[in-house]
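2024-03-11 09:14:02 INFO receiving multi-entity request
2024-03-11 09:14:02 INFO entity count = two
2024-03-11 09:14:03 INFO echoing inputs for audit
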Amino acid sequence: MRPLSGRRRLAAVASAYACVMLCYCAFFAAPVSPAAPLDAFSFVVEEGVYSHFPHIHETLYTNGKAFIGVATIRTISAPSAAYSMAFERLDRYAEDFAREQYGVEVDIAIESSETGYAFSGHKAVRYTYGVFKEIAIGLPPFETTQDVRLAEIGAIAWFCNVDFESVVVVYVRPAYFVDEPALQELDIRTMDVVASFACH
Amino acid sequence: MNISASFGDPGLNLDISIAVLALASAPLGLVALHDFMSGERERGLFGVASAAWSLCGVVLVYYGAPGLLFFPGLLAILITASLRRARRGGGRLQYAKATLLAVLLCLTTVGMVLM
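2024-03-11 09:21:47 INFO inference complete, emitting structure
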């Protein structure tokens, strides 16, 4: 076989690189198979695609004071930078939801972060935030104020090897049940739904 | 929309998009194979090795291997190729290329440790 001459070789290498680029474009634009929970019947579901390149599918579940947002993102591997866009977007949804449901004057503070969290058979990253509100306790003139943890915002992200997709789950769960005992049931149901998420 | 396709064995249901990703290394692999067959053994060998490594990366990540290992491996192959070419008289350009790739490899490795 004869070696390729200068121009021919250049053309062959350029064409090969063009093919590589096309393959990568096709991969990132390919629709994802959205991660879904086993049972979310009591939640109102809203879903859509918010990015076509890379392909990102988003599903939002709401039920009273509980919220779950899920983004499935086409990625090659699991660097956190790959899904930071979806992470920030869902985090913003969760914070807006918490302020709408628990009061605009709530404080949101990070409580924990973990990089090797075992979730759905994968190694995930997990962040939790507390939603605090200053509440007056007692009657005047003896009343005192106290920071009460009303809710928890959680974010879990992992990479699905078999799908070449990353999944980000962000949730808001109620955490203060004194005035509304029914919220405890909602909290359990929310965490059951979160725990049942798996790669498609 | 799910566009999955089965390749015979029910245990090997590769999504078409993953197959496309795996094939991304094929065009450069074919050019390298042509180089190898036409006498440019060393250039061809390293090219084929890079393409094979990339293809293996996709398959092994599918089966659970950590994907972050594969880019440094690819850089290491390219650095070795540049150094060998430089030693054979490739000159400063090949040394510069190897140094640049080595810096990129260090940055990637440090970046992965920090992540």
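2024-03-11 09:21:48 INFO post-check: Strands of chain A lie at 44-52, 55-63, 66-74, 107-119, 122-137, 144-160, 165-174.
2024-03-11 09:21:48 INFO post-check: The two ends of chain A are 48 Å apart (CA to CA).
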